[in-house]
Specification:
Radius of gyration: 16 Å
Distance between the termini: 35 Å
Number of strands: 6
Order of helices and strands: EEHEEHEHE
Number of helices: 3
Strand order of the largest sheet: 1-2-4-3
Length: 104
Amino acid sequence: NHPGSWVERKPAVLSVHYRGLLPLNAVCFRAESLRLLDRYPDARGRVVSEAVEVTPASGWDEGTAVERILARVGPDAFPVYAGVAANDSEALTATNRAGGVTIG
């Protein structure tokens, strides 16, 4: 129904991109996508970089991924994280909390 939009499947999330839509169509698409997600209480949707990112509502995010990786590699790890989108904020925070370096 929305030529110029597409779904990117990632290991734990979906990104529903709408970069190819005209601005007014993008506004309607974004609102419709978020309204549709309201039907699924186990999913969380947020707008990032001309996409709606769909993640589990249980709190999993890129910050959780950073924390899990650091737990596996041990206390001598020195984390570095670079990110430019709103969905990188949790990973930047987790990396800073672990005493690492962030670029964002």
